[in-house]
Amino acid sequence: MDKKLVIFGLGDAGELAYYYFKTDSKYDVVAFTVDREYLIENVFCGLPVVSFDKLSEDFPPDKFDIFIALGYSKLNKIRAEKYLQAKNKNYHIASYISSKATILNNNQIGENCFILEDNTIQPFVTIGNNVTLWSGNHIGHHTVIKDHNFIASHVVISGRVTIEESCFIGVNATIRNHITIGEKSVIGAGVLILNNVSPEGIYKGVDTKRADFLSSRLKNI
Fold first, then answer.
1. pTM (2 decimals)?
2. How far apart are CA 183 and CA 190, in angstroms?
């Protein structure tokens, strides 16, 4: 029998999570949930929407799992907050791992991870909780990706890289081996990283110049 799942979020991420869990997992998605102030519709994707503060009344944690389907707003802060709130409600937090991804790390993957098609995760990689890997990434051997990170598509992360918490890595970025990306860093699309990145580092373009406007955009959307 399929496990029962509730998805937090009514945006694009929620709709995508519904599609992936529905078509490529052992979960049966039965409902959506959001905070009460964002409860503007009672049905989404043909399923009921309930207020998060009342979720345990209709969908108790001993019978239903949850997945937090949010993007990288405020450098993943909102997704992290809802993930921790769901844990405090004693829910088991589901992860989605595409059947079309190549997973070679003995499933060393945490909770509330969203790992899409064509990702290659090499041996001895460790992936923490609440990590999104969009499609088509290469995660090199012995790399550590810590909690609350968002990695966009076609990123190359070489071997023995450490990505600290709450970072954003943009499309087509490349990170050399033996590099550490400090927490709350933003690596823009197409950036080539050849040296360690200090916490809250902001880089854009192939010249890796700092870009304050990119930081403002990611931290305020």
1. 0.91
2. 20
